[in-house]
């Protein structure tokens, strides 16, 4: 590529070798990056399929000698506490994740329409608030939120800690600033003329919203929802703190702790459970990766 | 996406009528509708994120422990700046603060350098190959923090961890001996090394993919121009790529700093307890004071949280200024 710049015949003859070397180097680097990215994931899955004997053997093999489903069987079917197994934790995870995604989708779509379509006095203040809020780490707020939930619970009797309600509320709030900003871009990019034309044809605002705006904003809503899903699905520390000893309310990430430490660590089961935890996120990532990048770096590369 | 959105916004009149409706309801709606629309989101943001920031500051100025939460307990007492004074004179806190900054710089630097290099590599590879590598990177990116931490713990485990076995198998003149039983999780330097490895492994794909997207937006003619001037890869990066992507790099840097300053889950799995104060980072210290110390010290935990929040806001003030100046808030 670069070597062809020169016009002398001698150099031109040598050029292909240089290009070949260069290209080989690039490909080798590509392969290295691929292996570096994939290897820990491979190792997680490979360990999940190894029989206990091989995991505890000092003869560590890169490829499992025999494959077994014993760890998946243990994770999926054993009751970690009486009456509670993987499926209960999965249901808990799905409740908080889907609940916060649904609530977040409605709240952020409404706010995004307001910010993209209306001029009002608090508009700038609201957007600056969203930007600033994203910067404040949830880890710094967890003590205050915990105390608030505790006090609210004591005052009203509505349980916020030790069940899924509190973490559902927190997950919804934490994802909001980013999902509103993502959706705002999508709403703003729908030409206003489309809506005006429909309105002139006699469509009600409601019809305009559902028939014109929604279909065009739907991809953004999907991307924002996937972002919110992944945030809630992976979350560990808030769930750990707010659920405390209510182990039957644990989400999937917390359920991993059952295989960790207590009576010696079960690496096979940990890796099998980690694999199951990772699968949905991977599926979503492969699906929405590009939109999430543009959502996260929104407004950074302009003209 | 962004430029078109900006253009659409530019065209719109300052008080655009909402679609549909007669003249009367139109005026009334344009006054209250936006507030009704942001109302629910604003309410939950204020309750769960904004108000707790205020309380965090308030808590940090009071003697506030778990005892104050008991029924009929006295209200927390104002203690001036006792928590802050104690922190400032506590060598342990300074060590944790120093470790946090050093570890964060190494994580961010490693992630940015590796991510940028790989972004450029992806740009140079043929499309099919670049897509294949990207899909591999998605796997690293998509792995939940808890799974990633557990896998790295397993990889670095004494005796059976693949890394220890591999290091032990390498010739002694290259890496030294005795790796098989080496415990990575006791001392700060080895533990933080593993921590940095997990974080960089999980974070570089986002940087690489963002840089790749940025590179695709740079007109090819610019590179041809500097090539005619005889610039090599290094100079064309500093003369074309970097200036063109400066806003992107600034944003990625800020995001990465925020994310890496608050690392918790990975440390929680690698350190596995709160016994060893020498491997704490700030976020870990907050949590330990708030939930693991006995009695849980909310005041002190909040004071450390204030320190961390101020650090992050100082770093991001620059970024916020850019965003506001670019008209993101218009």
UniProtKB/TrEMBL annotation, chain A:
UniProt keyword annotation of Secreted present: no
InterPro entries assigned: BP-dep_ABC_trans_perm, MetI-like, MetI-like_sf, Na/ntran_symport
The protein's name in its UniProt record: N,N'-diacetylchitobiose transport system permease protein
Compartment(s) where it occurs, according to its Swiss-Prot or TrEMBL record: Cell membrane
TM ranges: 20-43, 89-113, 125-147, 167-187, 208-233, 267-288
Keywords: Cell membrane, Membrane, Transmembrane, Transmembrane helix, Transport
Gene3D superfamilies: MetI-like (1.10.3720.10)
Domain ABC transmembrane type-1: 90-288
PANTHER family per the UniProt record, alphabetical: INNER MEMBRANE ABC TRANSPORTER PERMEASE PROTEIN YCJP, MALTOSE TRANSPORT SYSTEM PERMEASE-RELATED
Family note: Belongs to the binding-protein-dependent transport system permease family.
Gene Ontology cellular component list: plasma membrane
Topology of this chain in the membrane: Multi-pass membrane protein
GO BP term, example: transmembrane transport
Pfam families to which the protein is assigned, alphabetical: BPD_transp_1
Automatic annotation (TrEMBL), chain B:
Pfam families documented for this protein: BPD_transp_1
Domain of life: Bacteria
Family membership noted in the UniProt record: Belongs to the binding-protein-dependent transport system permease family.
Bilayer disposition of the protein: Multi-pass membrane protein
Pro residues bias spans: 13-22
Protein name according to UniProt: N,N'-diacetylchitobiose transport system permease protein
One GO term of the biological process aspect: transmembrane transport
Span of domain ABC transmembrane type-1: 97-319
Keyword Transport: yes
Record has Transport as a keyword: yes
Annotated CDD domains: TM_PBP2
Region entry Disordered, spans: 1-28
Species of origin: Streptomonospora salina
Transmembrane segments: 34-54, 96-122, 129-156, 191-215, 236-259, 298-320
Cell compartment(s), UniProt: Cell membrane
Keywords: Cell membrane, Membrane, Transmembrane, Transmembrane helix, Transport
